[in-house]
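Subject: for your reference before the review

Hello V.,

The reviewers asked for a structural picture of the protein, and I figured it would be easier to keep everything in one thread rather than splitting it across files. Below is the amino acid sequence we used in the manuscript, unchanged from the supplementary table.
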Amino acid sequence: MRFEAILFDYYKTLVVPKYPESEAVRNFLKDLQMRIESGEISISSTDISNVEESFRWSIGFFETIRSATGIDISVDLLIKTLTTRLGIYREDDVKRVLELYTHHLVESVELPPDTLLAIKEFWSMGFKLAVVSNAHQVYFIKEGLRKFGLIRFLDAIIISGEVGLRKPFKNIFLYAASTLGVRADKCVMIGDNIVSDFIGSLQAGMYPILIARDNKTYELYSQVIKKEHIIRELTEALEIVKQQ
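And here is what came back from the structure prediction:
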């Protein structure tokens, strides 16, 4: 076969949302507020009414950096900024806040049946497998991969919050290929974002496949993307790869 490695995006590719990320964040903030009020998490300030405001400020600051530079900063620094603004200073409490944030994000997604089937089949065929994802919340992805039993099949996990660069910058794809020990033209990249995943990996010299799980998106992009580059489910990529 022509290829040696299969790269996957994470969110909306390997996993799908049960409910919006914004709802997961609201659940996290409510949970954090409750734990502060109960005394489970210590806070130096007597004013705990600004939990949501502090989070919005913290995430807004990091999104500004991302928009201006294309660089992701790890969630550890985001949570440290949030907890410092709230007056949460004990390291075990800071760690607990990070765990809460991660937990609520992980709970907001689920594994479609086709994901595990495709991953197992690609793995049994001898391909090197990796996740290449844009996310500052690296633990969301790693804990999700563990929860859903996918991590044991992976040779690499490349997350923008750890390596700095974000898709569609081609260097993150080249970094992934180098980490796997293969050439970029020996890699297939499967993802749901036409710019970050499809165009970005194409510019890096990879074979891009767009996954469009809902009919409306599929119908839209199938008008401009060749059928050997677009799928509805991950298992459909198996046949495409075999035919190349």
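For the response letter, the relevant points are probably these. The chain has two domains: 5-17+110-243, 21-106. The chain has a mean pLDDT of 93.

Happy to draft the paragraph if you're swamped.

O.
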